[in-house]
Amino acid sequence: MNAQTIDQYFKDNRESHLEELKSFLRIPSVSSLSEHRADMQKGAEWLITAMESAGMENAKIDETDGHPVVYADWLHAEGKPTVLVYGHYDVQPVDPLHLWESAPFEPQVRDNKLYARGASDDKGQVFMHIKAVEALLKLNGDLPVNIKFIIEGEEEIGSPNLPKYVEENQELLKADVIVISDTGMQGPGRPAVCYGLRGLAGIQIDVKGPKGDLHSGLYGGAVQNPLHAIVEILQSFRDQEGLIQVEGFYDDVLEVSDKEREEFAALEFDLEHEKKEIGISEDFGEKGYSFVERTWIRPTLEVNGITGGFSGEGIKTVLPAEASTKITCRLVPNQDPDDIVAKLKTHVDSHKPAGVTVEISEFDKGKPFLTPYDHPAIQAAGRSYEKIYGVPTAFTRMGGSIPIVAAFDEILGLPIVLMGFGLASENFHAPNEHFHLENFDKGLRVISDYLFEAAELN
């Protein structure tokens, strides 16, 4: 089958495809809000109908302890590899509603952008995979590879039930490569394949002093202030250049090869533009590493918030009884979240000021992920992008975390290809989320081409 035939098919069916996608986007499948539980079921049922209509088989809804998982497959390419496509049908809440220019669950196209919650993250990108399969089956009667879909309903709340589902269904999910479109491109017209993600480890530190707030005039200078204590603890975590001072924090960090760092430099990241975009005058971080390297391949420790005392209008001369802070660490390959949390606890215990008690709570853990960027499955995705976009593909890592990706890696042991079509400017998780339809159009063709590229991975 030639590219012109596929291209014409998508052109002829563009409007009907967009209308179908809009019907998906109208379902308010917000996984974090119990009031939308019925909508989550509707989202799963919509996918079953779409997959069966596309020509896939064995479509089913599998219940979990939370929201359901949707599965379907087509397994008639004898002797060919199997591609497992992962995505999610749940979306973020829409607050603050008044900042939306159009209703979040009433999709609108403006300036060749499709506006709706989930348009980019991740319904639009999941939909593209379904339509690529449908196109090839309608045009050719078969697929160049075997294909399986697993679409979950809890990604936006951390995928709490999916690792168990994957663990219990390893035979069902057996494949040769996992493909995920839930990431972004380098920029407009600049495709990228992501092959590495940082992991995550988070803690909350609660510092308690006197049994209640005290008058700072009567007790200041004689009683330890929990806010001062928590600042002292936080100050001990990093030096002035951002180097983390927790003993053993860097012990297991997987160093990056010179060749890979050369690839990063070749991306020609515009630091001055980035500083202007985010509104800073100077960048910050470990010496010897670029902005890109600090955000992709180096671990971090960041304070996400501090609470305690009085912060209202005016002043209140109080010595607060307690203070709290939340901390998250982004982790790189070979670092283990449980090990890092243990080291953070040891550090806090050894730097705790006198006169207070400290409690530490754990939350948000996810292991880092890495597929070698020269892996054939990664390079095949790069070729497909390049054919359609007409420019070289960037091979990147991401500073963020997708915990289920690491779970897939650990449980199934497969190469994972993160080939997304979103742009950083598309407001996913924020009001006026949208999807550039240029990337919708080209993405359909890229995914279709990749299925032929993947057929040669054996």
Structural account:
The chain has 458 residues and is an alpha+beta fold. It folds into two domains: 3-197 and 368-455, 3-Layer(aba) Sandwich (Aminopeptidase), CATH 3.40.630; 199-253 and 299-365, Alpha-Beta Plaits, CATH 3.30.70.360. The chain is 34% helix and 21% strand. The protein contains 14 helices and 18 strands. The chain has helices at 3-12, 14-25, 37-54, 123-140, 162-168, 216-219, 226-235, 258-266, 271-278, 291-296, 337-350, 376-389, 403-412, 437-454; strands at residues 57-62, 69-74, 82-88, 108-110, 113-115, 146-152, 177-180, 192-197, 199-208, 214-215, 302-308, 318-319, 322-331, 357-366, 369-370, 394-398, 416-418, 434-436. β1 and β2 form a beta hairpin. The longest helix has 18 residues, at 37-54. It starts with a helix and ends with a helix. The mean pLDDT is 96.
Helix residue percentage: 25-40%
**Widest sheet, order of strands:** 1-2-6-3-7-17
In the residues, how many domains can be counted? 2
CATH fold naming of the largest domain: Aminopeptidase
Shape: globular
**What is the CATH C level class of the largest domain, in words?**
Alpha Beta
Could you describe the largest sheet, including whether it forms a barrel?
6 strands, mixed
Radius of gyration: 24 Å
Overall mean confidence score, pLDDT? 96
Residue runs with pLDDT of under 50 for 5 or more positions: none
Which structural class do you get from the secondary structure elements? Answer: alpha+beta
CATH level 4 superfamily of the largest domain: Zn peptidases
Roughly how many Å apart are the termini?
20 Å
CATH architecture of the largest domain: 3-Layer(aba) Sandwich
Give the strand content.
15-25%
β-strand number: 18
What's the helix count? 14
